[in-house]
Amino acid sequence: MFMIKNNLSKILGEKRMKMSELQKLTGLGKTTVIRLYYDRTTNINFETLEKLCKALNCTAHDILEYIPD
Question: Into how many domains does the chain fold?
Answer without folding.
Answer: 1
